[in-house]
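Residues determine shape. Next comes a sample protein:
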Amino acid sequence: IASHFPVEIISVDSALIYQEMDIGTAKPTADVLRDFPHHLVNIRTPIETYSAASFCDDVEKLVEEIHQYDLLKLRALNRCAEILFQEGDLNEAIRIRREQELPMYEQLGDARGSAATAGKIADLLEAHGELDKALRIRREEQLAVYERLGDILMTAVATGDIAMLLATMGNFDEAIRLRRSDELPVYEKLDSRHRWLRCQLGI
């Protein structure tokens, strides 16, 4: 798994905690540990004690550190993709979003982050002229996720993105229908006046 996805490995085997206990413990080899670092391996000498409470404390700290690192990495990847887009390197921006940023959100189980990133990929594909691919992503990886989460505001926003794309593709009737039936009523219900006005202008 670690060779294909950006994961962190935390050992939960009490025998792997101790240094020099390499026989009969199924401890990963030095080469494996070098290529795929494991947390909580070789952290104590055999004469040191390590309780279950110590393990829980260490795991809690590691999870928090890893989570903070992931957030920083995601922000960095997002900024890199934005800069590449501004410089006109759409292919590399798409690659970073699709191959690095999106898998991290999926690994973290962050459905909203995945949906938002899918929308950004669709934005790049639109700018690249790949409208059919962008439309599929907006429907299947953006809109569908917000619908599943029950997020009516973001569902309406994603619907508006689809409507704008359909208009760009020349399907004006369907674009207007989506605006009027699926987007405007949500903004009216939520009393989101600036979104309602922008949607009206889009019609």
Observations:
- The chain has a mean pLDDT of 88.
- The radius of gyration is 24 Å.
- The chain has eight helices and two strands.
- Strands lie at 9-10, 38-39.
